[in-house]
């Protein structure tokens, strides 16, 4: 009977699934149906290559223009094999055995087919010889050469119950590559491959295993532990276990395949082909629309230092301005001036000219974002501007020591922050007063992101302190919200690595959380802890935080705080969420201090009454 070619394609959508697949195919974990006495062979790739996750990420970074979509397939896994009668033509039922020359013919033809069809997109191929029948697991990074984007659908077609036309063509191609070996393509839509698998294991079902049972009998003087150890190391028993485990797995796969084959093959094929056509059309028109559409003004406003106002669905506030954004139009209520597009908004808020605005957009959004904002008719001019015009740099607000006492009183008396905290921040240059009596909290690069010991200041957060009901707060002009942060450390030694990070929405909340932490521990914790001010998931330093073992998000107790905490936990699974009993952490600190003061006063009154008595 003629042997059949077998090809299946799977999708790995996350790095976790890539790593999990590698653990199985590279035998980095225990595999019940694998014979531990047989070695597998890496056909493509080297044995000392880095982890598959790193290889896939490197290939994506080097050959794609855009960051992969959240639902993108990062890696496609291909399973290649042939039915058992090819490898053992004299007795296909002998699982785990094969003709060495035939096996290498199959391996070489399959390896050549992978290289001819996928080139360097095939980053690894493993030949498995420790299971019932030789087979290959290959990993393909599905990069579209035209769009420079990941696209499993473009390469292999859509998924679903029936293979697409593109996948069917690959199966035809693979069968043609194996045809010189006497292997042919199976009948499309039939269950022939599953029948062959059933025949392959017929010997396991029919042959009694009683001939091997004498191996399980204890020898004279042998303890139960010695018997168990001997059985576990017996290669024949291991082979039987391997065959039974593989048999159970095949039965389950065959059951699923039979269930899937019940629906109409013709109808499913027509529907899936139509879906694939519509998806391709939608992808094309979306690309065209993105190239014509201007940058979202909300993103531009956020990078300018503005924040969504509490009232008014489309209003943004900051730096003394209230700006309404409606699609590509904006209007400043304070200046009574409006305009359209990203360039006009940057020129208005930053107070710069056209050239500086283009340079600013390039600095924040890169070349593609800048060109989207300037549109096609200024593409040549904008590129020249970027090359010649220096990017506007952030300049710290001017320090005014005469205003410091008022700022100091506001922070220590009105907001209840510990005086030693405020003194330490000022001595390090991380807090000072400007000429408008604002508390200036400097924002710096994180230690591991700067080449020198002294981190660069990239921005500043301002908090108004003038007047009883002052509510002014915002970022100093030119602040890069994704390049620097306000932070400080407590506990442990200065040379210790950071083991915990507490994320708060503002510098004052971070100081309040730190003060409450010191009070709760009756002093400094031995754990080196960073307190970090982050008011949006957009500005999270993910590269730094992903390696921190413990993260606490301490946001406000309102819905906005809950939403931000949930978003951060989704990005950083090691996160725990802490909520204040009051509205925010500074209010919590003030309430704690009030109770402490009341308790001390009551204790003093009791002592005085005792003396009077």
TrEMBL record:
GO molecular function: DNA binding
Chain segments annotated as coiled-coil in the UniProt record: 250-295
InterPro entries assigned: DUF3991, Mob_Pre
Keywords: Coiled coil
Domain annotation DUF3991: ranges: 409-493
Pfam families given in the database record: DUF3991, Mob_Pre, Toprim_2
GO biological process entries: DNA recombination
Domain of life, source organism: Bacteria
Region described as Disordered: 17-36
Annotated NCBIfam families: MobV (NF041497)
Assigned protein family: Belongs to the plasmid mobilization pre family.
Name used for this protein in its record: DUF3991 domain-containing protein
Native source organism of the sequence: Dulcicalothrix desertica PCC 7102
């Amino acid at each position: 009977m003629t042997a059949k070619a077998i090809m299946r394609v799977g999708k790995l959508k996350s790095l976790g699934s890539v790593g999990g697949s590698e653990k199985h195919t590279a035998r980095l974990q225990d595999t019940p149906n694998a014979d531990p006495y047989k070695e597998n062979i890496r056909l493509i790739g080297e044995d000392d290559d880095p982890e598959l996750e790193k290889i896939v990420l490197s290939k994506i970074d080097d050959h794609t223009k855009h960051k992969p979509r959240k639902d993108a397939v990062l890696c496609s896994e291909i399973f290649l094999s042939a039915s058992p009668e090819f490898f053992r033509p004299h007795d296909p039922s002998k699982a785990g055995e094969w003709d060495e020359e035939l096996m290498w013919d199959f391996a070489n033809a399959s390896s050549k087919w992978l290289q001819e069809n996928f080139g360097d997109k095939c980053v690894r191929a493993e030949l498995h010889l420790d299971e019932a029948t030789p087979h290959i697991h290959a990993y393909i990074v599905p990069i579209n050469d035209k769009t420079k984007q990941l696209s499993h659908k473009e390469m292999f077609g859509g998924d679903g119950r029936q293979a697409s036309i593109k996948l069917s063509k690959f199966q035809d191609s693979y069968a043609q590559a194996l045809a010189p070996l006497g292997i042919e393509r199976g009948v499309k839509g039939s269950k022939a491959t599953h029948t062959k698998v059933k025949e392959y294991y017929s010997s396991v079902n029919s042959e009694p295993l009683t001939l091997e049972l004498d191996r399980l009998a204890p020898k004279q003087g042998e303890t139960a532990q010695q018997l168990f150890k001997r059985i576990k190391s017996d290669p024949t028993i291991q082979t039987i276990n391997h065959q039974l485990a593989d048999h159970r797995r095949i039965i389950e796969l065959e059951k699923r395949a039979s269930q899937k084959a019940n629906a109409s093959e013709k109808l499913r094929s027509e529907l899936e082909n139509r879906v694939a056509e519509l998806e391709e059309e939608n992808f094309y028109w979306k690309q065209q629309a993105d190239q014509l559409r201007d940058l979202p003004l909300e993103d531009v406003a956020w990078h300018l230092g503005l924040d969504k106002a509490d009232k008014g669905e489309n209003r943004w506030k900051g730096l003394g301005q209230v700006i309404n954004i409606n699609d590509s139009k904006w209007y400043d209520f304070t200046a009574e001036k409006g305009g359209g597009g990203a360039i006009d908004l940057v020129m208005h808020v930053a107070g710069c000219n056209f050239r500086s605005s283009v340079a600013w957009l390039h600095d924040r959004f890169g070349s593609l974002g800048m060109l989207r904002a300037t549109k096609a008719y200024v593409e040549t001019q904008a590129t020249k501007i970027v090359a010649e015009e220096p990017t506007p740099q952030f300049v710290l607000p001017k320090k005014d020591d005469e205003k410091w006492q008022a700022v100091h009183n506001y922070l220590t008396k009105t907001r209840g922050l510990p005086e030693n905290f405020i003194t330490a921040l000022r001595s390090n240059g991380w807090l000072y007063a400007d000429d408008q009596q604002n508390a200036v909290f400097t924002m710096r690069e994180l230690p591991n992101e700067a080449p020198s010991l002294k981190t660069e200041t990239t921005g500043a957060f301002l908090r108004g302190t003038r007047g009883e009901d002052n509510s002014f707060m915002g970022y100093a002009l030119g602040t890069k919200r994704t390049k620097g942060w306000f932070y400080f450390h407590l506990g442990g030694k200065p040379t210790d690595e950071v083991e915990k990070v507490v994320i708060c929405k503002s510098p004052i909340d971070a100081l309040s959380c730190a003060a409450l932490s010191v009070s709760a521990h009756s002093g400094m914790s031995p754990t080196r802890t960073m307190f970090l001010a982050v008011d949006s998931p957009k500005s999270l330093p993910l590269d730094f935080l992903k390696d921190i073992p413990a993260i606490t998000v301490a946001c406000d107790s309102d819905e906005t705080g809950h939403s931000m905490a949930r978003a951060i936990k989704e990005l950083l699974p090691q996160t725990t969420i802490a909520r204040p009993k009051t509205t925010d952490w500074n209010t919590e600190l003030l309430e704690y201090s009030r109770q402490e003061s009341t308790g001390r006063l009551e204790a003093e009154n009791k002592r005085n009454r005792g003396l009077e008595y």
